Amino acid sequence: MERRILRTECPDAKGLIAGITGTCFKYQYNIIKNDQFSTFDDSRFFMRTELEGDFSTADSFIEELRHVIPDGGICKLMPIQRKKVLVLVTKEAHVLGDLLIKSYAGALPIDIVGVIGNYDKLEDLTRKFDIPFVTVSHEGLSREEHEARMLEAISRFEFDYVVLAKYMRILTPNFVNSFPNGSLINIHHSFLPAFIGAKPYQQAFNRGVKIIGATAHFVTNDLDEGPIIAQDVIKVNHNYSAESMAKAGRDVERQVLVRALSRVVDGKVFIHGNKTVVF
Amino acid sequence: MERRILRTECPDAKGLIAGITGTCFKYQYNIIKNDQFSTFDDSRFFMRTELEGDFSTADSFIEELRHVIPDGGICKLMPIQRKKVLVLVTKEAHVLGDLLIKSYAGALPIDIVGVIGNYDKLEDLTRKFDIPFVTVSHEGLSREEHEARMLEAISRFEFDYVVLAKYMRILTPNFVNSFPNGSLINIHHSFLPAFIGAKPYQQAFNRGVKIIGATAHFVTNDLDEGPIIAQDVIKVNHNYSAESMAKAGRDVERQVLVRALSRVVDGKVFIHGNKTVVF
Amino acid sequence: MERRILRTECPDAKGLIAGITGTCFKYQYNIIKNDQFSTFDDSRFFMRTELEGDFSTADSFIEELRHVIPDGGICKLMPIQRKKVLVLVTKEAHVLGDLLIKSYAGALPIDIVGVIGNYDKLEDLTRKFDIPFVTVSHEGLSREEHEARMLEAISRFEFDYVVLAKYMRILTPNFVNSFPNGSLINIHHSFLPAFIGAKPYQQAFNRGVKIIGATAHFVTNDLDEGPIIAQDVIKVNHNYSAESMAKAGRDVERQVLVRALSRVVDGKVFIHGNKTVVF
Amino acid sequence: MERRILRTECPDAKGLIAGITGTCFKYQYNIIKNDQFSTFDDSRFFMRTELEGDFSTADSFIEELRHVIPDGGICKLMPIQRKKVLVLVTKEAHVLGDLLIKSYAGALPIDIVGVIGNYDKLEDLTRKFDIPFVTVSHEGLSREEHEARMLEAISRFEFDYVVLAKYMRILTPNFVNSFPNGSLINIHHSFLPAFIGAKPYQQAFNRGVKIIGATAHFVTNDLDEGPIIAQDVIKVNHNYSAESMAKAGRDVERQVLVRALSRVVDGKVFIHGNKTVVF
User: Fold this and answer.
1) Per the database record, which ranges form the ACT domain (chains A, B, C, D) (predicted)?
2) Would you say the CATH fold of C83-278 matches that of C2-79?
3) Closest Cα of chain C to B50: distance in Å?
4) Where are the domains of chain B?
5) Does the reported pTM lie above 0.90?
6) Contacts of A207 in chain C (CB under 8 A)
7) What is the architecture, at CATH level 2, of domain C83-278?
8) Which CATH architecture best describes the domain B2-79?
9) pLDDT digits (tens, 9 = 90+) for C204-215
10) DSSP assignments along B230-277, one per residue
């Protein structure tokens, strides 16, 4: 008996859950777990169904489902398997290190297919895990030239997701548009929408906040404005300098990114405009 | 259009969700929200479905559902309305005070029908809100005599739930058995199962823990061992004496109780042996 | 033996702790608890010392301390006693209700001397606790006229602090300047600096954040930009509408305000520019 | 200018802070940060003072301090430098992996001098970081024989602390007594004192708790009863099996251990009976 994830997304309508689960029952797919949600403002229906059964009949199952859901709907059957992840970095080791260990130890169902940095600082760490590292220096290059080289380096890898693991470069629309929507994930070192932009810990220190945080989000062409997947915070106080906030924040950054990534690769995240539904 | 909560509980079986939601669809009950869960160890199925529709046909709907679910199953349609709560107290004001304010301000859909204390200390506070207060002193009485008087006082009220809001008396099996299972809710001032029994904050201080907590649970005849509904904690450190732990703990106690109670009155809590399923 | 709080604030200098604690020792004041901090950017020294002793010699003690600390420093001996608090409200009961209960039950060392609202909605609740309530309606009045009437009403009370307990009016500089710096405390229903301004829960819903929060701060003439005293957050998800975010947020609002207020009345908060030091 | 940590511990007495900080001032040691605490029950005084100055006169400074503090007191001047840590493991990679990354990346001021396991499962991971790994299998050996071999292997390393990073063996008093008090640190996979002993996650699942946690503590000859250094928790619900609790708990385990270890190596932890003071 195999397991797969059915992801359904469509305009809401009466009888949708009955229709979809009835079709699952007809194909003898047992429902292990089911989550659904209909949005408040525009009645968009999202459902994630964990199924167990014999999927040799999957094609006709999906075909039949297409008649159950309203026009403009999508339903996909996703295998449960490790996803391929490409990681972009600059100099900070903590997020990459956590991904490497978690992938190595089987704590996160991802294979890191490669790491690309605009510095070579994390090459040594990456290679310990027998993962290719490519340095694409930005020095002396225009943003466009550097991105062209990055895209060339990226094109050498096959991947499901690209994770910006503290990749400290501003991205142009052209770069972002080179990736399918929902495949580019960033960890931002602030509790968005507070402290958008550069040096958020310095901004937080200057403002005298008592809590700092991190935000994992899909990257879109609105800088730091893509759909938020996960956020978390830690408490700080007057004893924290901007530097010690940054140090304390690192632990939140990697936790939030890992939590977001594990939900994404598990098919639990749906994008809805500039928001997410996370089951 | 009215809203009601359908609560289903039965042995798990293939096609249950399809069967139940199909019946809802047949009766033109729109599903606003649906949660279901099947237990790991004994495959017991629980489902809470928020429905919207015309419930003049509710009786035949329930009758039809009884044929959909396996033998030994239960399905009930619950109106969404304020619940009647009787509160038992001793001397501490914080939990009762929070319930009074939240009931008064409409933040919790409960009506407090009365408060009974083994001291009269909270009579003044209770009467400010025009709620009857009965003092049933335990002084000079055996436990059995006192409980008999308590039960007599309790019998004068009509209620859905009895909340022990820091009622600091040990209950006999006879007392507990006087109430339907799931109608007696206690707030225990420790993070169960740590520090069962008397003076948990003193125990926590003596042990030097760095976190203290509170637990809301249904009362059964296993002392402090009933099904846990909600728990929460706060951090403490060496600066806390047993007394300041107790003071800090009060805020967690009332929050945990209110969270538990709001889930219970909303039909979100199912009892399963010594555990709960909380949607 | 009496207890008092010594609050010292001055430019940092070598030997300050030795000088101050040496003077305490000379006067036979026992140090129960001591906290000090020197700021990172401008080396400002803050110290809070809980003392036990015979304070009949307090005047010469303070006189002597003035020679120990650098010019431009302040040192004050504060009695440990209940503070007088005036509360301003609009229509929401939860923050006021919590203050009333906590003051009544002795959980917060404050006496609420009065409540002033621009609606009369909370008069009934306030009077239950035998506290005067004054309604100063803003209807048909300019902002300036309304504030003039508010200030007149406020002037009838004697108080140490004014707490804006969900007082939903924008304040003019003239109004703010009528109070000593550090005596006007507001609870803002967002995690500042995110969602400054109106309808922060609607803003949070629109942005799709996964965490919402509240901020207690001193009021200055920078709207929502005064020194932050305390902040806290709770997690939300796609199931929350703007309304249910607001409801969930209320519990954080009152907790954060109570935490801030209890620190302030305990002499634990120092203002330093647009920030606070909270011991 | 060098920095050192002064750690003082003695019976409480009047004028201690004045005496110690006065001596610091006399030696022109500037106080960067100071924390002190006196216990509630037995008036034991603890103080940690971060000093900056010229420590060529450190010996006479300490000699002079010995006359300032009461008999039976201890004062030590600790250099700020990376500590040597030996790690014991069984099969789980997450805690070790985190220590390796944090040590490698400079996020924790420790050098891991070696790793010893009763299985060889983590040898590959350890050697990636060029750190020696020794396997000391327990198979076919009595507990005493195995411990004798462990102690022999341990004796080959020079270290400040031994960290039990999910070393799943019960220790005999003889083994524990081979290490100085305060040098053996364990991470226990439950929120002590709940679920002492084997399989805490299974116990937590069986009890139906809504929160699970982890505890870092010094090891003494009371099993799971040594002084607690740090604890933290995460929320769980009915969706968690014992296995998924264990998986979720791993993140808390490593965070709690790292937090505890970073405090210990920073001289911030004092042992007081079966408790700790953590500045």
Assistant:
1) 5-82
2) no
3) 14
4) 2-79, 83-278
5) yes
6) 192-193, 228, 274-275
7) 3-Layer(aba) Sandwich (3.40)
8) 2-Layer Sandwich (3.30)
9) 999 999 999 999
10) EEEEEE--TT--HHHHHHHHHHHHHHHHHHHHHHHHTT-EEEETTEEE
